[in-house]
Amino acid sequence: xxxxxxxxGTGNVLDITYSAAATGDALSIAMGTAVAASALAxxxxxxxTDDLIKIDDDSTSGASCIDIxxxxxxxxxxxxxxxxxxxxxxxxxxxxxxxxxIGARNLVNIHNDNTAAVGTVPLNITQDxxxxxxxxxxxxxx
Length: 142
Prior knowledge:
Number of strands: 0
Structural class: little secondary structure
Distance between the termini: 57 Å
């Protein structure tokens, strides 16, 4: 099956809409033994005016918005590899929490959950450029 949309236009090429409670997945991709193929490849070019991937979730459930469970052995590759080599003035990653909840919580949690992994470094930061400040702390005191 192939969907091709050429030229300027508006509207979605494919819509999947749930109109009632369901327990199945809207889209399931089973790769099996297709070890040289990508399950999903997104390629964007030009001056983007919208996000290449957008996830909007306003549910109130206790489920994660993105849940990645990897059980394979990553011997020569990373589970997630994020690289930006183009000229840009923004950063590589932005994590923002705008919750007014006053309960104790961690915004970022790194947990090496295997006591036998004694050679693991939980966080490694490398700065190749010569700078006077490797870490910057910005706080607003109430």
